[in-house]
Amino acid sequence: MAEAAIRDQEQVKEQAKQPRSVRVVLMALMIAMLLAMLDNMIVGTAMPTIVGDLGGLEHLSWVVTAYTLATAASTPIWGKLGDMYGRKGAFLTSIVIFLIGSATSGMAQDMSQLIAFRAVQGLGAGGLMVGVMAIIGDLIPPRERGKYQGMMAGVMALAMIGGPLVGGTITDHLGWRWAFYINLPIGAIALVMITAVLHLPKKRSTGKIDYLGAALLTIGITSIVLVTTWGGSEYAWGSAVIMELIGIGVAALVGFVFSQTKAAEPIMPLHIFRSRNFTLMSVIGFITGFVMFGAVLFLPLYQQSVQGASATNSGLLLLPMLLSMMVVSLIAGRVTTNTGKYKVFPIAGGVLMIAGLFLLAQMDTETSRFTSGLYMAVLGAGMGCLMQITMLVAQNSVELKDMGVASSSTTLFRTLGSSFGVAVMGAVFNDRVKHVMAERAGSLGGKALGGGTQLNAEGIAKLPAPVREAYQFAVSSGTHSAFLLGAVIAVGALLAAFFVREVALRGAAPAPAAASQD
After folding, report:
1. Is there a smaller number of Cβ atoms within 10 Å at the N or the C end of the chain?
2. In this structure, are 162 and 219 located in the same domain?
3. Taking the model in full, what pTM does it have?
4. What residues contact 424, with CB distance under 8 A and at least 6 apart?
């Protein structure tokens, strides 16, 4: 332990003496982060055109699912590879794989090819987010890292707002294949910048990759994601397929935990969970992902169905939440950098997240866009307190040699939280919509909706007045139930935040001499 502490102190001193080129590196990292986050937003807008060209409507969901599965399953492996063999090489490899997947997806001639190439793209994407977070963890001490939280939150907001708009413009003017080709020049810029200016110590591990652990974790994550993706839509929750997937997933994850106690170089070393703060941040990250992606799914749906907003501007509908999140994240980062104190932010974030979700649950058919925007801003403020602080505290809670697995584990828990959030909140929403439609419109509602529960603004306008009013009330009621559930789940994040211990951030008090050597 003493040797590890000395090693950490030496690396922190190196961090304090980073050259000015660190800003160029950060710019390249943000470009790579934008690649990972922007892709699904752009592709989602292009999907109707893709299906019209390639056919295969029955396989539509797999275009997204293949990418999501590959991303989630590869995330922990990329983190471990960076710890063992060096982060720069692992990160550059992940970018190259992502770009190969992008190029081949753009050249796909049928839906089966597109699904396969999207899986390749997802494998690369798994290393992009982890690589960004881990490299920032290597370059910048935790005490200074808060300064850059606004940049990361800004990239996230840019992706969510700009993605649908960019996707629609590209598809209309250049064709859907450019929704994938657009990644190539952006990725090439990131590759060149990172190759030229990122300098990290080379690592060469003598240990062997934990193939058994990687296989078991991949099977477990795949089963979980498929359960949350298929449950209640492709298959009934109590169906044999879902039950089998649950059984396979539980068995694989139990086997994975056991294998990690025996492996020489475990994919996810269990000792990192001995840190109370790391475990609590994993819990908070899971709940934040659960709430955030549920909100991103249902808020545009509510505003399109009930408030009559256009689907074309779906990204702009989230602007109050995303701007609030970005501003609060920037403030939280600055305060953390200046004071070294951070426990207040998980607590404040938990309170604001619960309050925002509860307010959103009060929306009905009469709620104005201004009022719903204010409610979204409250939720965004809560997430702004949590999004980057969870990663910062998690990274500060482990030794620097475990920075990659800490970053990948935190990212994985947030990803799994988003999968559960969309599935669980979606199931509650759909059940409530169907129930209310049956009450208010009877068989007429079912015929008008064609058995579905979601329509765009144009489709709703064409419905008979009684059915339209019933559907708008049903969506409002479903949104109420989904956000109320989210508020209850968010209580877990607040409870976890109270148990966080405020451990001093590494690099909290750099010596004046170190600063003068820059």
Report:
1. N
2. no
3. 0.79
4. 228, 290, 294, 485
pLDDT by 10s per residue, the chain, length 518: 444 444 545 444 444 444 456 777 888 888 888 887 777 777 766 776 777 777 666 666 677 778 888 888 888 888 888 888 888 888 899 999 999 999 998 898 888 888 889 989 989 988 888 888 888 877 777 767 666 666 777 777 777 777 767 777 777 778 888 888 888 998 888 888 888 887 776 666 666 778 888 889 889 888 888 888 777 777 887 888 889 999 999 999 999 889 888 888 888 888 888 889 999 999 999 999 888 877 777 787 787 777 776 655 655 777 888 888 888 888 888 888 788 788 899 999 999 999 999 999 998 888 888 888 899 999 999 988 887 788 888 888 888 777 878 888 888 888 888 878 877 888 788 788 888 877 766 655 555 555 444 455 556 666 666 777 777 788 888 888 889 999 999 999 999 999 988 887 766 444 333 333 32
Tell me, yes or no, whether 196 and 324 share the same domain: no
Judge contact between 397 and 406, C-beta under 8 A: yes
Task: Give the chain's length.
Answer: 518
CA distance 336 to 332: 6
Rounded Cα gap, residues 177 and 162, in angstroms: 18
Q: Which two tokens stand for residue 490?
A: 């968010």
Number of domains into which the chain is organized: 3
Q: Are 297 and 422 in contact (CB under 8 A)?
A: yes
Which distant-in-sequence residues (6+ apart) come within 8 Å of 233 by Cβ? none
Q: How far apart are the first and last CA of the chain?
A: 30
Q: Running DSSP on this structure, what letter comes out for residue 401?
A: G
Task: Residue 110: count other Cβ atoms within 10 Å of its Cβ.
Answer: 12
Q: From CA 201, how far away is CA 290, in angstroms rounded?
A: 36
SS3 content of the chain, % helix, strand, coil (to 5): 80, 0, 20
Chain centroid to CA 33: 11
Burial (0-12, 13-18, 19+ Cβ within 10 Å), 307 = middle
Q: Which domain holds residue 441?
A: 271-502
